[in-house]
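call fold(seq) -> tokens
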Amino acid sequence: MQAQLNGPVMYAICGGIIFAVALICVIFLVRAYRAGLAIGMDKKKMDLAITSSATFSLLPSVGILLGVIALSGSLGIPLPWLRLSVIGALHYETQVAEAAAEAVGLPGLSASAMTAQAFVTIALVMGVCIMWGMVFSIIFNRSYTKKLKNPSPKKTGGGLMSEFADTAMTAMFIGLVSAYIGSYIGGLVSGQGLFTFRGDWMPLVAVFFSGAAMAGFTWLVEKKKIEWLEGFSVAGSMLVGMASVVLAGLMF
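ret:
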């Protein structure tokens, strides 16, 4: 099955889509650059913005690479490469893929147990569940941006909608994280003990240390005003969490 998932057909399909998206990005970059020159923007400042953006995108992309590596063991390289290169999000892809795998009866994202039917189901769920952002943007973005531009919530509800969107997004992530941490704690309580059942408490180790790392990054950004660290916080926290699990596994 892995030979098919990593076959030339999959690479051609996924690589073709990624190439098309990359080409569109280059076209927008060139047009934006020319438009900047046309309206009199400083060429040196635009060059600096391009260089700094490319530089500071390298380390945050490590987190994306880790996600591709984590998913490629069971789903092959092309599909995770496509999903995390175009529109996918690291926290979304891994969670949805694992949930879909469990729904079709697999013991998680297991490479040895992967079947063609399971792969199609996982890929379909990953694709269908994330497409609605694009669909809703096409339908509702124009009216939504008009409301956001109006500072008076009494007239259009723009301010209230913006506040609601921020609150809803925060609440969604808190609920998501709480559900996962709760499942880890439940697995620990129902297991064979703290130091005898590794599969249950290792996720809590990752949660604790990656959360502590993220809190440290946030403190440095907000209190010490080291704003450039903000782009590295996700990748850095992931690396800290993974390293903590490796060390805990070696120690216990």
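Residues 193-199 have pLDDT under 50 and may be disordered.
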